[in-house]
Design a protein that fits this description.
The protein is mainly alpha-helical. It has seven helices and five strands, in the order βββαββαααααα. The strands form two sheets. Strands 1-3-2 form a three-stranded antiparallel β-sheet, covered by helices on one side. Its cofactor is Fe(2+).
Length: 222
């Protein structure tokens, strides 16, 4: 695991330092390099807003201990058997800050929608449809095709604009979304897939977003 003992400034998803590979310097004792969604096959280590990749990744005893701990926390043994299965998302595991924040946000949006029938008007309906189209295009065109797969190249100002539209869908920032999607393709339908179907339909459909520890566990040494 890369040590982050040095002082690192938080970087914007569109920072030039992220959009290119920076060679190691004397200020980087661990020979850290910064990568981004510009490189489809790059291996990224996620720390929320900062993506750090080790030049020569190694699996240390500390990594093994942490992976074992995370596995024990997120899985449990079926009584009277040797079968080990993932703990249920809602009531069999420990929730962290990000899990709770996401759950509150999504629950709040759905509760507020219950007021819509009592305050309906066509102006609000048109705004809702417009925002839905804009946010959907931001996810599909920007997050998915442009940033994740680099299917086409846009002028930077237009790339930023579409990425901003993607944030309106409340599916996370561009770097996090792209990282998860690339791991999904790299480890598709395996235990290391962030939203693997091996844990059930509902986990693959949406419950995985409330289990950030599971995502970190899957990419622990990447």
């Amino acid at each position: 695991m890369v040590s982050l003992s040095t002082s690192l400034k938080s970087l914007s998803p569109f920072s030039s330092a992220i959009l290119s590979t920076r060679p190691p310097s004397k200020h980087s004792p661990n020979n850290l390099i910064f990568s981004s969604y510009d490189k489809p096959n790059s291996k990224l280590h996620f720390t929320k807003r900062l993506v750090v990749a080790s030049k020569k990744p190694t699996f240390t005893a500390e990594d093994a201990l942490r992976e074992t701990t995370l596995t024990e926390e997120s899985h449990r043994k079926v009584p009277f058997s040797e079968v080990v299965r993932k703990k249920r998302v809602f009531w069999e595991r420990r929730w962290n800050y990000w899990d709770v924040s996401r759950a509150i946000g999504i629950l709040g949006v759905h509760l507020l929608s219950l007021y819509a029938p009592f305050h309906f008007n066509w102006s609000a309906f048109r705004v809702a449809v417009g925002l839905s189209v804009i946010a959907g295009a931001g996810i599909t065109l920007s997050y998915h095709r442009n940033l994740s797969h680099r299917s086409f190249v846009l002028p930077k100002w237009l790339e930023y604009l579409f990425a901003w539209c993607g944030t309106l869908a409340f599916q996370g920032d561009p770097i996090e979304w792209v990282s998860n999607h690339r791991y999904h393709h790299q480890y598709s339908d395996t235990d290391r897939d962030p939203h693997t179907p091996r844990h059930g339909f509902w986990f693959s459909y949406f419950l995985w977003i409330f289990d950030t520890s599971s995502i970190l566990q899957n990419v622990i040494n990447q």
